[in-house]
Each structure stands twice: as C-alpha cells, then as structure tokens.
C-alpha cells in the first residue's frame, strides 16, 4: 500500500519516506501512517492511536465492537454496554433475559421493568400478569384489570355473566329479565315459539312477526304461496319465482339446461355446466373442429351451428324443425312456426297481444293490434304486474327495454302501497278496510282489531296487540289493552308482571297495585312484610299489627325493640311490664342512671352543673338525692 494513501487534512505534508501522517486518517483506518484497518464493526472511525472503536455499527457493542447484541433485543438494537434498548416479545428485564407471562398478548409483550402484561392478555385471561382465567361464561375476552366479561355466552347475563338466563333466553340482565330470545322463541319471557315457517327460525321478540321461509306468507307465515313461488304477499300472485320458473304466476319452466331465467322468460341468467347462450341451447361438447383456441368452426351434427365456445342447436320453432336451418349461422331457412319470430325463431309472440299469441310480426314480434292493459312495448311482453304484482303504474322502462328487470313500480293497486326503497308492493293488511296511503302505507281509517300503531311507524299499524290483553284487543292508537290484562299482568300493554306478593298474583291493570295481598304482606304492591306482628298478619293497607306484637317488639307495626326491658317484655306502647335491665329506669326503661350521676346533662331530668344529682338505690331505680351545696 502506498504511504500516506489514507492520510487527509495534512497541515503541511505527509512524510513519504516515513509514512507518518501529520493530518487525520480516512474513515476505517488508524495508526501513524493511517494504514491500519479499524475493527470490522466500527461505525466509520476508530481511535487514531489505539484503534478502539468510537462507536459500533448497529447490532454490535464492546471495545472493538466484537460482541453481537442479544437476539432478544427488539430489532437487535442495544447500547455500547450491550443493554437492549427495548425487548423483543415475549421477553423483559434489563438484559431481556426473562420470559413474559405465557398469557400476555403475544404481539405486544409485557412491561420492560416489571413483567406486567400492561398491553393486554390473550383471549380468555385477565390480571396484572394474565394469571387468571376469564369466566367460562364469557363469550370471548374479559376486561384485563377486573375480569369483567366483554360479552356473555348465550344463556348467561350480568357484568360477570353470573346470572343464568331463563329458558330459551340468550341474553339477560338478571335471571328473569331477557333482552334476546334464543333462535325460534319470542315473548317477554321467551316462552312462545316462533311460527314454524319463519326464515331461519328467527322472529321478533316483541310480537313474533318474521320474514317467511320460501313459499310461505302472512304475519305468522302459515299461508302457502302459489306453486313454484319463493316470495309472495298473497296466494294469487308472486313476487319472486323459484329457480327454474318464470311468468306472472311462475307457471312456466325455464328452457332445458337453464337453471335460472328472467321473469319474462326471454333470457337465461344461469345455465347448467357445459351450456351457454341466451336460452342455454349452446353446448361445448357439440363442436367437431376448433380454430384459434376455443373458436368453433364446425359442429358434430346437422341442426347445429358453430359459435365461440361450442355449438348452438337450431330452434325447434323453425318451419320444418331444427334441421331446417343454416348450419353456419343458425338462421331458419323457411321462417318460423306460427307464434314465433326472429331470424332464429327462438322468440315467442306475447300472449298479451290483442287478438292472440300467433298474430305478431314473424320478423320483429310486434303486435299489430296493440297490447292488453298493463302491458307495454311493441311486443307486449313487458308489464308492471309481471315484475311487481299489484302494481298499477310502473316506471317507463318501455323507453329502455334493456332495463326491464330493473324497472320499479310507481303506483300500486288499491289496498297496497309501495314501501320506500322497496321494489314490490305491500298489502295494507293491518289497516281498517285495507285502506292506506299508496306511498307511505299510513292507514287512512285506523287499524284493524288486534293491531295498533307504533309511535315510530308513521301510522302503518304494524304492532300486534300483546297476547297478554284479554281477547287480544287493544286501543289502536297506543296499544293499551281495552278489556284489561290476563291474570298476573299489568301495565298499559299488559307487559309487566304483578308482584309475587299479590293474592293469586292479581293486580290493578294500570297502577300495578295488588287487589289483595298474600297473608303476611301489606302496601300498594304488597312489597312489605308484616314482620314482627303476632301471627304474622297485619292490616294490608297500613301495615299496623292489629293482633299485637311478638315478644320483644312494640309500636304500630311492631318495628321497635324492647331492648331495655327485663326479658324483653313490654306492652303495645313500649312500657316495660317486668321492670328495667340494670342501669336503666323510667316507664320505658329508656333513662340511664349512669348518665345522670354527677349531674351531667344527659336527659331532661338532669341539670348541667346544677343543684341536684341522682343516685342509684336498690332495685335499680334512680331517685333524687339531697341538695348539693
């Protein structure tokens, strides 16, 4: 190596003959001639004389940076003494040589100094060191400091899921107060089964109403739709046909190999595997010769024509049958059979042409005499009620026939209304005389018997009178039971339970006050016990013990104790009948002899610092002593 090659900032010059550098060395070198290499892991420079590293590269420490930082250091960072700047999870301590508790959050780790799981526990554990198991009633995790469940498993309630919910209740606040019934149940106590045909067996906890399973309708889903119908509001029409069917009444089957088609039947939206095309009549296996990958140029059999992906069968509606077609294009050679139209004769004339379904133009399908009422477009194939039963006026999709399936209803038939953002008309079924506003569904003449209007439902009478109402009848404006509540219930809507202390569990419908109390109770709702009354009975209104008190008690309700009477015996007014216990005197034995000794002011009969005092005499009575001078 040339002398002075690593010498910089010389004040005069480098002595080439000796190699001595009177300046400084470039990074990575040291020595008088700057030709010695600093240790590998030095950060840029080392001591000019000794070669000791001034700073180390990342991940190293020590005099010559020969020591590697611990693998337990976060990102393997440590200071010049080898102490980790922070620890990698799951370690802690000055040297990151201790293991965090096993149930600390695996990603966040624990406190560097104490080892506490300050950043949370794994699911199922709680405590400073995550040493405690969450209750097995917790749905998943619990609060780290106190073990409070974040949520309960079905059937339990309370902050620690300590309550067992009543039968068929998934979520409760106390044993008998349910917030959410189990699947298939409803009612205040989850004691009623949802109608059997509710979708997924789920119904409203309030009144049991639900969305119906396929093929059923009605408030209780007990009525069947017409055949091949998945969703309806009565048994004369259908909102949604079952897969594989189409038509206003779902009376027609989709073409062969077509598993789902448009309501009009004009086009298949899903074919069986291996088939394609608007009518699913094209078959990938019918191609005899391909070119350019999947492009078919020749079919296996007559009566088929090639198309990208396979071959399509010529229409059976060609005059002379499907063999009477061009095997290259599929065009019918002699036109269509009556009732069909188009170049391939796959389209059927509408049955809603005025005249009959064979009078349409064989090329265009246009009905020459117009359409029956409620049907549109020149081919008379598109009607409001086809897509939306009970629709009397629909969007003008006839200006854009490709948007037919998306067409909506503007106005429904009498007795029906169009819910906001919904496609189908709904029946005014809970309205008196089935009369409601066609846009809002608000009942024009009130509710039918057995239904009432929820203040938030804008007059649609969508609440059923509670089953607790006698005869199931309630005020149609607020739900108050007209003929009262069934036994054991109270409240305007009969949704509250009478006190268990009410005789025969009967109470006033509106106030909740018991008609009579069970023996041993008194008060408006019979919540108070007769306590120490003789015989355990008292006046059910006032609670006064009319037959006297048990030994040791006195007062109108026998609520006071004869504490200072001998043997605890006193009369109804509290006067001791057998004398006073030691240290007391007076009719009620409520005067204390010891309090009066020395003239201390303790009662109205003692004068503070006065002229008189009391003394104790035999038989434990206090008497006035001589005058003190």
Automatic annotation (TrEMBL):
Q: Which domain of life is it from?
A: Eukaryota
Q: Does the keyword tRNA-binding apply?
A: no
Keyword Chaperone set for record: no
Entry keywords, A to Z: EGF-like domain
Q: Which InterPro entries match?
A: EGF, MEGF10/SREC1/2-like
Tell me which residues make up the EGF-like domain. 3-35, 37-66, 68-97, 133-162, 164-191, 193-222, 224-251, 253-281, 313-346, 348-381, 424-462, 464-495, 497-527
Gene Ontology MF, one:
scavenger receptor activity
> What protein is this chain from?
EGF-like domain-containing protein
Record organism: Mytilus galloprovincialis (Mediterranean mussel)
